[in-house]
Amino acid sequence: MSGADLLARDAGLLWHPYAPLDAGALYGVLGARGACLDLDNGSGPRTVVDGMASWWSAVHGYGHPELDAAAKAQVDEFSHVMFGGLTHAPAVELAESLTRIAPAGLEHVFLADSGSISVEVALKIALQYQAAVHRPARQRFLALRGGYHGDTSAAMSVCDPVDGLHSAFPGLVAEQVFVPRPPAARLLAPADGDRLESAWEYDDAALAAWEGDLERIAAAEEGTLAGIVVEPVLQGAGGMHFYPPAALRALRRVADRWDLVLIADEIATGFGRTGRLWACDWAGVVPDLMCVGKALTGGYLTLAAVLCHERVARAVAASEHRAVLHGPTFMGNPLACRVAAASLGVLTRPDHDGGAAGWERAVTALHRGLGDALAPARALGSVRDVRVLGGVGVVELDRPVDVPAVTRAAVEAGAWVRPFRNLVYVMPPYVATGEEIARLGAAVVHAVGEVHG
Hints:
The protein is α/β, with parallel strands linked by helices. It has two domains: 157 residues, Alpha-Beta Complex (Aspartate Aminotransferase, domain 1), CATH 3.90.1150; 282 residues, Aspartate Aminotransferase, domain 2 (3-Layer(aba) Sandwich). Helix content is 36%, strand content 18%. The strands form five sheets. A seven-stranded mixed beta sheet has the order 4-14-13-12-9-5-6, sandwiched between helices. Strands 1-2-3-17 form a four-stranded mixed beta sheet. The longest helix is centred in the last third of the chain and has 19 residues.
């Protein structure tokens, strides 16, 4: 089927994320391999670098032989069985792999359908924990302004209440407690090597003032708070905001002081995207609950997980219900679990020299490559800032992005991007080559310059 046929049949039939029904799609996808997509809008196929990694999930690119083989092998055995009362090797092996690479103490795994659902589950566990330790009045959560944690009801409640995507639903979501977002930070240019150095630049006075606000608000509300929800170091859909790891340590201190459950939303930041396996690792912080998703299956299937600290799990196990009160139909789907286990194997395997893990060398190369490729955007009059963290590159404009125009200009120049607000950002697959990253950066700079000047 041609791209034109796809677009015509799609229009008015399918809703797309945060788009009007009659908006349709911009391109049809005819194929995908490596770090590239084959797109067509009726003018003929065009191969472009995927700057989005399918919304940050396809870290190994498309058509990876080991992930393909894992999916095919599991289909030949069984694609799905219920997880209530049953278990199977893919789920057990995935959970073993996750706890092996997770921060110390996160020893238990709840498998969920998607990132948003993993946040829902984590919020429930935090409430169950507080009830188990005889504090049932603690029903609210402390979250950061500028945060984004998903589109389901409880997840929406801990997103930014004003500038977030969910301010249209005041009667549906619970009212939570919010603190200002931490001040901006920048990871300094890395030295030569396979690992990014932990050298951050930020305003010390601004951070101290933020910590004062955090402690004041938490102290005033501590009797109602069950936990803290945070995207570590990088706020994604809330504005691609990088902040100091020291802020995460401050959140850990506040959580410890009031016995709040610290929930790290690593759905976008986990599996190496920021330059550490977990963004929490930048701060040396171990959360009580950690949500993972997106890259968990390498972008092949929907799957997420909540990793739970032994202390919290023990309290829930000793509580009235003894169980986590959630049970999705497709919990522990064998097909997704087997692909996810294969993906983790590829991700953590040492490189061909037996040195750093493959993701670490790849993401360090992305950091350098994106920094070089996006640097020319600083000369454009419409550009306010250019920043890079690991496999994340951001061009921030001084005005809202003309999304369709910039997208089309980028595709014409060889890259697929999906801007939002005033941001043109990229989070490409880890397998992207140096030449592909250079092409991606050049396409972004060209598109911004052509459309916005």
